Known about the structure:
- This protein is of the alpha+beta class.
- The protein has four helices and seven strands.
- The chain has one domain: 3-Layer(aba) Sandwich (Aminopeptidase).
- Strand 6 and strand 7 form a beta hairpin.
Amino acid sequence: MSGSIRDATSADAAAIASIYNWYVEHTTVTFEEEPVPAEEMARRIEAVRAAHDWLVLEGGDGLLGYAYAARYHARAAYRHATESTIYLRHELAGQGLGTRLYTALVERTLARGYRHLVGAIALPNDASVRLHEKLGFVKVGHFVRIGCKFGRWVDVGHWQLESYARPPEARP
């Protein structure tokens, strides 16, 4: 299955919310517990797009998935780091679409001058781990029983992609 990748807009909010809310309601991959209304998703899209990329993968039957990078933490020293996220329509997993979409996000994020992408993955999630590691992310941390959803404790692992080891101030 193919599709085109483009920047998300507020007009995509309902389709993005539909994709995301399936995961909210059926899985522990997100710790959000209540469905997100389209209006709130539109606000989130605009907030992210002020300094980062939010991409969608569009196919013949509508939006197939989305990925975005957002601020990792508010402190100034984190200004070179982002947290990345990807969701596909749940029935499309395993078709290579995530690789295309996430690769585009990584390339765009690094082109903006960010040097780190961090993926937080609720575990177990073999598909997400494979995707991150396929693109060069390395596991750098593991929180045990950090979240509780659907009456059970969930671990979270952190995978990091680093494009350059020395800080900009130390480069020749």
